[in-house]
Amino acid sequence: MKKTGLGDRLTAMRGFDVIIVGAGAAGLSLAHAAARIVIPGVGTPQIALVEPPAGAPRPKDRTWCFWEHGAGPWDEVLAARWDRLAVLSPTGVRHEQAIGPQSYKMLRSRDFEAHVRAGLAPNVHEYAATVTAIDDGFDRATVHASRADGSRVSLQARRVFDSRPLCTPPAARTTLLQHFRGWFVHTGQDAFDPGTALLMDLRTAQPHHGVSFGYVLPLSSREALVEYTEFTREVLDDAGYEAALRRYTGEVLGLEGFTVAASEQGVIPMTDGNFPTRAGRCVFRLGAAGGATRPSTGYTFSGIQRQVASVVRSLERGRVPLPPSPHKRRHRAMDSVLLRALDSGRLDGAAFFARLFARNDMREILDFLDGRSVLGRELLMGATAPVVPMSVTALECAFRSLRPLRGTP
Predict the structure, then answer these.
(1) 280: domain range?
(2) Are residues 144 and 131 in contact, defined by beta-carbon separation less than 8 angstroms?
(3) pTM, 2 dp
(4) How does pLDDT run across 351-403, given as a tens digit for each residue?
(5) What CATH number corresponds to the domain at position 13?
């Protein structure tokens, strides 16, 4: 792995085959995969990985969860995995099921980053600089950036992949926010089943529009990540999250005498807006900025991996490496209806999710959310949803145009 010095102007100005802007899940995943391929007419690609310098604002350590069939490429750095999932209805009815051959997996961002950086090939050149502009060209794009000392650097490449969050959200019919705060808790006595992840605990107090739930990922019988989550328009303040977590851990879970080792918090837009992955002839968007987030759930990591795999295949074949939308059009349409039904208040979110998991095989639900399901099973699954509110909302979505978002963080 080559670190580029601040004064290395000649290296800074030379061209690359690929430039990756941003070193989050999407950028690092692409750097990890693309460094090992051979591009027709190029050979082993020279890759620049550009990320903000130390001291610049960066996302805090966080967890990514996903599910997959059998073994996966990140298994050696997983924080935990579960072969059983559970959902609790608002009245406390428990629906639990083994999901094999799938597993639900938890990966911490710091472990992922350390693993990828330790294995970056010598043809990946890291630049600690803040990107200020990307100029597209006929056959090359130029990335302009500023280092911590104020000096500037310009890099050129035939392909530039920008994984930074969008400054302005796309026009949408509906946008909710998945916002949450979680505690890594330690208890003095056994309190958790380490073999089962509690995917949705719907016994929380419900908002008027949207849905709230608890989320428990046990790391051992005495350790777990416990989160309070809402799908609503507005985030809570610090006092609101703390009160909600205190109520959930104390009144709902009945935990006593626990300590909080660490916490995490996040906000994920859940929107039916369109995310074009092409930003120019030579510039492409990747990750959440390229629509990798599933609108109805906020899950992003699996979508990123599918985008990266497609990009790498295209590069290997000498084709235009346009990242695809990892979610099928009909699935995005179904998600749009669900988001609108929740936002309008027509749909009782807690009752809907409890009914969905009670009347369907969890493995089929996971396949649907991962884009692996077939239309016939999806129609049968849809038949278990409340007919009237979903039908009315589907008609509304069909005639409701996309509109710019206002006030969305």
Answers:
(1) 2-59+110-169+275-316
(2) yes
(3) 0.91
(4) 999 999 999 999 999 999 998 899 999 999 989 999 899 999 999 888 876 65
(5) 3.50.50.60
